[in-house]
Amino acid sequence: MSNQTLIRESRVSRTAVMALMFLLAIYFLLPIYFLIVAATKPQGDLASTNGLAFSHFDLFSNLHILFSRSDGIFARWALNSVIYAVLGAAVGTLISALCGYALAKFRFRGREFLFSVILGGVLVPSTALALPLFLLFSATGLVNTYLAVFLPSIVSPFGVYLARIFTAAAVPEEILESARLDGAGEFRTFFSVAIKLMAPSLVTIFLFQFVAIWNNFFLPMVMLQKESLFPITLGLYQWNGQTARAPLLQESVITGSLVSIVPVIIVFILLQRFWRTGLASGSLK
Questions:
Q1: Roughly what angle, to the nearest 10 degrees, separates helices 59-68 and 73-82?
Q2: Using 50, 70 and 90 to split pLDDT, how confident is the model at 99?
Q3: Is-contact 271 206, C-beta < 8 A?
Q4: What is the pLDDT of residue 47?
Q5: Considering Cα of 128, then 131, then 133, then 136, what sign does the dihedral take?
Q6: For position 284, what pLDDT does the model report?
Q7: What pLDDT was estimated at residue 283?
Q8: FRET partner for 208 with CA separation of 20 to 30 A, picked from 46, 82, 95, 136?
Q9: What is the pLDDT of residue 146?
């Protein structure tokens, strides 16, 4: 096969891949574009105008209505989501890092069996755990509290799996032995040496945890009855169920949905460099 033929085939394959990526980009970005367009429209234009075309720009008016509706309950839902997601992801990342580090760097009986159990936990859907968790928290009197959503959110089998893989790839045994020879204990070795080398991977785990908790819907729906404790997802779901009786809520649901994705986008943009580095470190393993 001549070089010219190879070059032609390379161009064709490259063009096909780029075309596929372009189509996938449209497929994933089109709902976001529709959400942006719908959030800028007044209530009356939602059904009377093209869903993909802008009409009257009423975004700021819609935001004012959103945050003033029901005595500003949406702002409380947003704060609750931040508390659940940021604190839950931070604590969950630390727990995953400690567990993954122990599984990667310590030798003990049953280690591989324990790791297999953790991997099995990755395969269990969160919806299957909702009822057992509700019964457990109901017995302890924690239903309808912040802890009912926070405590289950800090446990992530997938985070432990990632932490072990990243630790094995990024933390050399020689550095740990040097720290121990200098008199550092295991916790000091972890927090002063290992965690710095694991930093890019921890950002990756934090992002996975943050997005999972921020988008979590079923667990808060099972655990919470007080509106003041709702995250954004559950609050918007409740409003959406009332649109048949109160059609004006539809615009607030759409605008609230747009607002709800902004923090996720901001977090990804701010932490993108660390996230990509962490994924690359894990792929080397």
A1: 90
A2: very high
A3: yes
A4: 75
A5: negative
A6: 43
A7: 42
A8: 136
A9: 92
SS3 of the chain: CCHHHHHHHHHHHHHHHHHHHHHHHHHHHHHHHHHHHHHCCCCCHHHHCCCCCCCCCCHHHHHHHHHHHHHCHHHHHHHHHHHHHHHHHHHHHHHHHHHHHHHHHCCCCCHHHHHHHHHHHHHCCHHHHHHHHHHHHHHHCCCCCHHHHHHHHCCCHHHHHHHHHHHHHHCCHHHHHHHHHCCCCHHHHHHHHHHHHCHHHHHHHHHHHHHHHHCCCHHHHHHCCCHHHCCHHHHHHHHHCCCCCCCCHHHHHHHHHHHHHHHHHHHHHHHHHHHHHHHHHHHHC
> pLDDT band at residue 209, thresholds of 50, 70 and 90?
very high
Residue among 102, 91, 125 at smallest CA distance from 216? 125
3 pLDDT higher than 60: no
The pTM of this model reads 0.84
Can you tell me which residue has the tokens 């908790």?
213
User: Cβ distance 157 to 122 under 8 Å?
Assistant: yes
- Give residues with Cβ within 8 angstroms of 279, minimum separation 6: 204
The token duo for 264 is 């996720």
Dist. CA 189–CA 203, nearest whole Å: 20
Nearest CA to 164 out of 117, 98, 241, 94 is that of: 98
